[in-house]
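Incident log, structure service

09:12 report received: a user says their structure output differs between two submissions of the same chain.
09:20 pulled the input from the user's history:
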Amino acid sequence: MRWLPVALLSMLLAACGAAPVSAPSATADTGAQAAARRNVLDFETPAFQRYNQALDKTICDLSAGTIIPGGMLTGVTNPEAFAERLNRQIYAPLFEDPALLAQSRTTANEWANSVSQYQQDQRTAWEHIAQGLSPQNEREQRVSALYRSRKARWQRLGKRVGMPVPMAFHLYRGVKGDFMAETVLKAWKDERSDTFRVPHYTLSSWSLSEKTAIEFQAAWGGPDVWIVFEADVPFEKTLMDKWVDGGTFAERYPGQHEVVVATREPDELVIPDVQATVWLDRKRYTYQDRAAFIQAWEARPVAK
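09:34 re-ran on a clean worker, output below:
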């Protein structure tokens, strides 16, 4: 497949009925413009947004499926045939190595199997590699190869789409539970600091889309409490994503716009207090609403 220039890609998107991308105002300093100056990839970065729309349309066309709220691709009648066509058309040119592409798909599929031991096994493998140690088994070899070749895949994608390799990604993570809410509570009550550490494993799933993170938690987070964190995550602290790795990220959950964050230590990411949002009993609280959230949280009945 020949990759399309940005201008032609935009024309095809319009012809296919995709939502047009509005040009930023020449005077308005939008979040996307600020992120572009710092080379932080935002979900609304124009060249990226056009490519992501085209990729999602390709995924739906090749699979005859539909991306539903929460990010899942449904209605796929022949998953293996779809995966073969998608890899040949989109991901093989980025990998330029069929064996590594197959390894990436295996790793992505393992990562999606969150009810099993696979995610912990991948964390263990990553932690070994992150210490600068040589791979000792097949899983560590796969993780190491994906990490070492990641920038090259983004360079190929960036060259064809018309954007530089990002220095960082502006990401969102939807989580649930009292512990996460109490982390935000503690940060918002602490007047001595305006930042806090996000609780996370050395490998954790984030999304490039705030809307997707909110939808995911609304669908799966339960009616009580859930939280969305946002952070600028450096490129070198990421391992896999939908756009250059494929696999389950594109074949089953393309609407989650997933990036796997990879840090040397747990709880390594530090974010400003303002970059957390809490939903309690379906009511939304931002940093500006922190007094109301603190009052509502502390008024909750104590479980017995």
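09:41 both user submissions now match this output. Likely a transient worker issue. Closing.
09:42 reviewer note: The CA atoms of residues 202 and 265 lie 6 Å apart. The chain is about 45% helix and 15% strand.
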